[in-house]
Design goal:
The complex is a heterodimer of chains A (252) and B (408). Chain A is an alpha+beta fold and 252 residues long. Chain A has nine helices and nine strands. Chain A has one domain: 2-Layer Sandwich (Alpha-Beta Plaits), CATH 3.30.70. A three-stranded mixed beta sheet of chain A has the order 8-1-9. In chain A, strands 2-3 form a two-stranded antiparallel ribbon. Classes of the chains: A alpha+beta (252), B mainly alpha (408).
Chain lengths: 252, 408
């Protein structure tokens, strides 16, 4: 009785996921998560990043960290499935208007790739150690927090000259009309960390464990362990700008 | 020239000062119909532009202007650069006479100083409608200065520049040439420092390949000198056309000298532009993309026709053709150059931002090359600032009687 069904099942061809619209992927994932509570994202789309875009400078990593805690985020890139729960959590937590974003997921697409054609790449402010935006701001409205290394905003000082937006190599800034100032990711400092929470809203919301947030100067933290190893590539975006970001990318 | 050592103004001097203003007012009231018509018309355009600007502030720049997150600087920053380059240029070129005492440059001094004040004010008018919170500027620029920021230095030094140039003009009117020279020197120093900082605003953005490097501050100064010559020839010629007065020999000689310096700086700019392109094409991928867009893409017309043709080659050859004597040809050269220079500023500002941030990662969320087109609001603000310059020029010619200078 079941033989027919088994044969029918075996005869089905894998249609692949290339043609499935993102909306469907997201819906599917949400359903799966709700029903089972089990995450299946990483293995479905796993791929090794084809080229390491540039390794984080080793001296910078081993020189010791100028901040304590030295907040940092590491992305396990292959795990991201573009469910955008991180973006949603960020919007809600930090009151980000619909015309702006503090974090987003970029879609990399390459038809000539030998494996999967698409890879998702989340981005946010890189909280650089040599931030071009901070140097350029005329009124110190944006500044590097002396304790945590977070690039923060003193909204009331912002002139709205938008030099920081032009200066940022990562497109991490936008002008927020409600705040009458440029707004950006602050690793949820104002909304969460300053209130005693230890993790950003996006990292908490990510069902796939893509976003690992923590103190890079603490050898016991996961971010420390992910960055201080040689077996897997760890890279930063646009290292050539010399901004020395504190957001790293790796694979799981 | 005053013989007194005491810089405090005496009663006689105060009287002279108030007489100057009174005679200026009387002069203004004695205009012809055509004068009032042109001044009124440009005032109307200024008013209209101000209404556009205020409306843009009210509805929010995001809705009113063509700039957006990825291209935050557009026509207004280009316009600002255009006006302040012209102002600095007027100051640099005219300083040869009134600061460094080269006789042949003295006749152009008063008009140049006056116009450098006018154009810097026009620049400030444009930036007023570009910055989202202009009223916070004087407060936080003073209370929370960032000394590593070129924008801070530029803003502060241009503030000083406006002060010194205005003071110099007043001192020139009062025939206090020694103090005028000192003020002019301070104006020149702050102007050149401010202007090279404006270049550095672009040149020191280490995330922006197209601009990054020492080229920008140097280019800005050379470009200012060329713009200054353009403005002097353009406005002096017009000044004499308006009144129908015959130019005296000294003024003719002066314009010839300006023309020669102009030709020199046009050649310098051609040289600079050529090497900017050649080095750019051998640069990083992002820079190559931008330069190719400028040479053969959407900005090719801007570049070849306006920047190279109108801005550099046509004025250069018209100048050579004129033999630095035919003022009509020199004036024609300045008209072409003014148009060309405006496009130079637009290209400089916009092309520096068109390459998408993450193009090298083959990101599909943004095109490799971003687009920008100015909105009517942005266009009107720049038109308004231009109308302001025309209006102030006309009033200046009338009130200060053609900016005549006696050579001492």
């Amino acid at each position: 009785m079941f033989r027919g069904i088994k044969e029918w099942l075996l005869s089905l061809k894998n249609e692949g996921v290339e043609q499935v619209p993102d909306e469907t992927k997201r819906e599917f994932l949400k359903i799966g998560l709700i029903i089972t509570g089990v995450f299946a994202g990483g293995s479905l789309f796993s791929v090794v990043s084809k080229v390491a875009e540039g390794l984080a400078s080793p001296e910078e990593l081993h020189k010791g960290y100028p901040y304590k805690p030295h907040y940092s985020m590491v992305f396990k890139l292959d795990r991201c499935i573009d469910c955008e729960l991180c973006m949603e959590a960020c919007r809600k937590t930090n009151h980000v208007p619909d015309y702006g974003w503090r974090t987003m997921i970029l879609r990399r697409h390459d038809e000539t790739a030998l494996d999967q054609k698409t890879l998702f790449m989340p981005i946010l402010c890189n909280h650089c150690n040599n931030p071009p935006c901070v140097r350029a701001c005329p009124t110190k409205a944006t500044y590097k927090d002396k304790k945590t290394g977070i690039v923060r905003m003193a909204y009331y000082k912002c002139l709205g000259c938008k030099t920081c937006m032009v200066a940022c190599p990562y497109n991490a800034r936008y002008f927020n009309e409600e705040k009458h100032a440029v707004d950006k990711c602050d690793f949820c400092w104002e909304s969460r960390l300053s209130k005693g929470m230890t993790i950003t809203a996006c990292a908490e919301a990510c069902p796939a464990g893509v976003r690992i947030f923590g103190d890079l100067s603490d050898p016991g933290s996961e971010v420390y362990q992910l960055v201080h190893q040689l077996a897997k590539p760890v890279w930063v975006l646009k290292p050539e700008t010399g901004a020395r970001p504190n957001v790293f990318y790796t694979i799981s | 020239m005053s013989e007194k050592k005491n810089p405090v103004a005496t009663e006689a001097e105060v009287t002279t000062f108030s007489q100057t203003w009174l005679s200026s007012l009387l002069e203004f009231l004695s205009g012809t119909k055509a004068f009032y018509f042109l001044v009124g018309l440009s005032a109307l355009v200024v008013l209209l532009a101000a209404m556009f600007g205020v409306n843009a502030m009210h509805i929010g720049f995001r809705h009113a202007y063509g700039v957006y997150r990825e291209i935050p600087w557009g026509l207004l920053i280009s316009g600002y650069v255009f006006f302040v380059v012209t102002s600095t240029g007027l100051c640099i070129v005219s300083s040869i006479g009134h600061v460094f005492g080269v006789k042949s440059f003295i006749p152009i001094a008063k008009r140049s100083v006056y116009l450098s004040v006018v154009t810097i004010v026009a620049g400030f008018m444009v930036i007023f409608f570009d910055v989202e919170n202009p009223f916070r500027l004087p407060i936080w620029n003073t209370l929370s200065p960032n000394f590593t920021s070129n924008i801070w230095w530029m803003g502060t030094l241009y503030g000083a520049y406006l002060f010194f140039m205005t003071l110099e003009f007043i001192l020139l009117l009062l025939e206090k040439h020694r103090y005028a020279m000192l003020s002019g020197l301070l104006g020149l120093i702050s102007g050149v420092a401010a202007h090279s900082n404006l270049g550095a605003v672009f040149g020191m953005l280490h995330g922006r390949e197209f601009w990054y490097g020492p080229y920008m501050p140097i280019y800005f100064i050379a470009s200012a000198a060329a713009s200054g010559c353009t403005a002097i020839i353009f406005f002096t010629y017009l000044g004499y056309k308006i009144t129908g007065e015959r130019m005296d020999r000294a003024m003719e000689m002066s314009l010839q000298a300006v023309g020669k310096i102009w030709a020199l700086f046009l050649a310098v700019l051609m040289f600079f532009t050529t090497w900017k392109l050649i080095t750019g094409l051998a640069g990083g991928e992002g820079k190559v993309l931008a330069i190719k867009e400028l040479l053969a893409g959407k900005y090719a017309l801007n570049f070849w026709l306006f920047e190279v043709g109108f801005g550099l080659l046509i004025p250069f050859f018209l100048l050579l053709l004129s033999g630095f004597r035919n003022l009509n040809q020199m004036f024609a050269a300045s008209v072409f150059a003014f148009i060309g220079i405006f496009f130079m500023r637009v290209d400089l500002v916009v092309v520096g931002q068109i390459v998408s941030h993450f193009f090298e990662y083959k990101v599909t969320d943004f095109p490799v090359l971003l687009k920008y087109s100015p909105s009517i609001y942005e266009i009107m603000v720049v038109v308004g600032a231009t109308a302001f310059c025309i209006m102030a020029f006309l009033i200046g010619e009338k009130v200060f009687k053609g900016h005549k200078t006696e050579i001492h």
